[in-house]
Amino acid sequence: MEIKTQEPDTPKKPWYRQLYVQVIFAIALGILLGKFWPQPAIELKILGDGFIALVKMIIAPVIFITVSTGLAAMNNLSAVGRVTGKAMLYFITFSSLALVIGMVSANLVQPGYGMNIDPGNLDPKSIQDYVDASKEHSLTAFILGIIPTSLMSSLTGDSILQVLFVAIIFGVGLSMTQDKSKPVIDFLNALAHPIFKIVELLMKLAPIGAFGAMAFTVGKYGLDVLWNLMGLVGTFYLTASLFIVVILGAVSWYNKFNIFKLLRYIKEELVLVLATSSSESALPNLMKKLERLGCSKQVVGLVVPTGYSFNLDGTNIYMTLAALFIAQACNFPLSLSDQLLLLLIAMLSSKGSAGVAGAGFITLAATLAVVKGFPVAGIALILGIDKFMSECRALTNFIGNAVATIVVARWDKQLDEEILQRELR
Predict the structure, then answer these.
(1) Strand ranges, E, within 268-335
(2) 15-424 has CATH 1.10.443.10 classification
(3) Which end of the chain is more exposed for a tag (fewer CB within 10 A), N or C?
């Protein structure tokens, strides 16, 4: 396991210079602007989109360098398969559990009951783009989509899994030719310093991005829509919170760390994810912090990017909860066997839905379209509030992947537990 040295203590910043404080302040300003001056607020969408685009620009180099140099340092390549296998076992278990919890919550609370919506009165044009996008959402297309057109194209595309795939292959090649490849390994290790410095600089723009994203959301959709469908929004946030505190909290306790201390440790990233509705916006910083917590570079490099496509707890809770809400609102009867079919379809369709804003809505459309007779037009009911729910999806996905990485690292004995406890304190 990689030996870590303790970084020297740095003086604590004043509260007003803390990134999460600045982002919270920016969110508040964005909400006020969107509420009272909606038209100018909508025009600020470019700030949020621009910030996310800047962060996504640096994600591919961060993953490529972290994974390839991590694998290059490994003498036993069988560890790659072992870590990946353990991670996938974890992902499948808790992603499936999240789907079940969403379904149980919908049956207990029944947030759509009594709405008596006629699907024929809903506007199908409002959801057409999502339905069209969902048609491309097949398991075959997902698997083939992991393979890039060329070695270099993965670094210029949008797919995290393509970058991970190429980084693993390249890292294995470096590991098998360590003596001859030493100049390349040294170069990549040196390149990591400016890359992570760029990440640090980009994070200083987070308050601006958060301000623009939140101003646009409130200006475009308004806060009133939240009150109209508060039953569904409240049920989703409560269910996701219980999943984090009870399920992930129990997993954390079993693995000898405290979920609340972890949440406090990554609070800056959580606030950023909340503001931008995208867990990708904090991915580089998450990887850096997990290494600082004592997880080995190899585990962080393999588990975090893979989790962004396979460990989407928030998206899974949302999918079954929203599907049953639509059925309840439109008085569409779903038997237990129908619900189990939805569950199985969701297990497949949710894979590959990377943590970006709007992906959960497209995945939901793909899932519902498979159930015969389901009033897919009912998706229009939640179109207005989906942006508010995407924040909770992104937060739950993000926290789930942070917990998963620590658990897999400990499971594979690649976690320095002394450093973990010290950092969390």
Answers:
(1) none
(2) no
(3) C
